[in-house]
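Late entry, written up from scratch paper. The run itself happened at the end of the previous shift, but nothing got recorded in the book at the time, so transcribing now.
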Amino acid sequence: MDIITGYTGSPHVTAEQDRDINIGIFGNESYVLQTGSQLTAEVSSNNEIKVRDGVIMHQGCAASIKKNTYDSLTITNGSQGMKRVDLIVARYSRDPSTNEESLTLKVIQGTPSENSPTVPGYTTGDIQSGDLVADMPLYQVILNGLNITEVKKLFSVQGSIAELSSNLKTETADSGWKYMTNANNLSEKLKFRKIGHMVFVAGSIRFSDDGKFANDQALGSVPSGMTPNGYDEFECLIPIAMHNGGPAGTQARIYIKNGGVYIVGTDSASFVMIAATAYFS
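Output as recorded:
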């Protein structure tokens, strides 16, 4: 075994060792890291694209564009009446005679076509296996005639460990049971509990004065932060297990709409118990 992060009296840390450490942390895929301008592309003209500062992690190999600077890439002129797709890649390369390595931005020019231009090929490569070339696609540059009409991002941005830790806390956070709000005329109220992104609903509803429920009657509001995700104006249904106005038919239900809790189909009831249910928030 060879020590990596330790003094041995002579230079001993290799690029291969450093990449292996990065692969252990980030994985063997290729990402832009969450720092600087994150390699944002800007179209300066139909012949120039500027890629702003940031750091990439390409199969464990790290490289950067210095802060507050950019790399300028030349786009070859388009052709009148033709379409073309060029590819901007971050290219790792190794000189087999000297073993010197580099990671730079390159433009791979596509083939013009009147209607259906194809994306040019690139070399995937495997750096740790010793391949001389390994490309990480960053952008597609779409040309229509002489003009660049779109620069399409192809890479993913890898979040920080601090962000990952925060997301994990969110995924497992437990609100505890909270009763529905704005329901002062109810002696019994539904209760909600959010664990991660899942909200559980349980309990019963009863009027303080034993009044009867009316169709589409507003009962109160879902506790803050527990609104169903993706429903918006559509109904999130909560089944009724029983009520004291007769059998709980198929039309008897409670629903959530725009954060409000409503009831329908229990005209003669003054008490309702729901079937415990859950939804995403």
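The CA atoms of residues 83 and 113 lie 5 Å apart.
(Scratch paper discarded after transcription.)
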